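Hey L., structure's done. Input below.
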Amino acid sequence: MLDKLLAAYINQRRVKNIMKNSRKKILLIMILAFLLVGCNKGDNTDKPTAIEGKPSEKNSITFMTPPWGVPPKEEALNKFTEETGISVEVISVPMAQIYSKVQIAYAANQNAADVIFLSEEAPSYIVALGAMEPLDAYLERGDLDIDDFMFQETWLVGDKPHGIITYVQMVMMDYNKAKFEEAGFTNLPQTWEELRDQALVIKEKGVDEYPISLGVWRTSWLMMSLGMGDTLFDEDYNPVFANEGSPARKAMEMLIKFFTEDELITPSLLTEESPHAVFRSGVGVFHQGWQGSLVSMNNPETSLQAPNVHYMILPGTGVTWGSDAAIGISKLSDKKDSAWEFIKWYVAEENQKDIYEAYGLVPSRISVQDTLGREGKIDGYEEIVEQSKQVTTMPRFTKWWGSFCTRIGEEVRLGWQGNKTSDQIIDDLAEYWNELKTEYQE
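Output:
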């Protein structure tokens, strides 16, 4: 069984080089066996949010999601169960674990969950495997107004939708206006060089010891590279970011200096991927946020930055991209109709409002956005509109995009630790991209 599982897994993930070492092979088999057992037994340690319903077991479905995808109002989900007879067990785990659990389960022909949350990198990690059910037949039923959803076309694989978009989320920046003005500034930085200069002044004046809140992950470098004018890839997906003297090289050099020479980013972020929790703790002035981040950052119950956080247009070119999410049905689910009923409820107006108010995730439904706008609940709406004029796309539907994004974070961490120069990082990232591209296109 394990031999079949390992073979299937190798076909889906880039592990060929790992097999060169026999001890690593044994370790991988043990890990796969452990994860498979976890998927088959339904280990409750991975299910902190479970809502029981009265219907029979055959009408019970599972929904695997990261914490920010959990329906925020338990009473609303209980009402769904009462009205439909479908009980929902919500399995809340980190996004990376969703990728691995779905991959391993699908390789073993096991169903990881009936409904699965799909993040920005899910197309390469999950959809490309064939693990998700195409939803065209369900949409043909006409019981969901798909024309009310923004950017639904971004979840087409070929000509078939594999997820229903749940929220729209441009990468944005926000800042603490009170700290910014305390340092004597009135005009926001127009370039990344100016942002660095202002951050150094803020640090020197003692307003904030670590004024920049960027994470050790893909988003920081991608955002800075686009802002400095890089396109990253050409139309054939060649990594032009590696060209000599490219803006992306300058962006990586500056980012690494933020961590090392300038000491503008707190070392505590070495143990955090995202910068959001650290910023909410009160550390930082300039923060990599998202469309809707003000809801979270200005919540006085959870953020020490409240109520002083405002959006700012990204420095430089202002070019950004979307990291939207969707929800879909597992290919191996035997309860697809019940799963579709849950999806319709999940993307309905009331739940989208609840998710926005709880997590600051901007609803994908045009009608819901309009309602929130009329109610004055979308803070920084003017900045959102202005930022949305400079949106590009990332090659996230390439089968190797997820693996590449993971590698970016690993390389930035090596740069922070002084184990690589910024040029070495860029060269290695380009080499890795080309290796993945060649392998997945064979």
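The domain at 42-168+323-379 is CATH 3.40.190.10 (D-Maltodextrin-Binding Protein; domain 2). The first helix runs from residue 2 to 12.

-- N.
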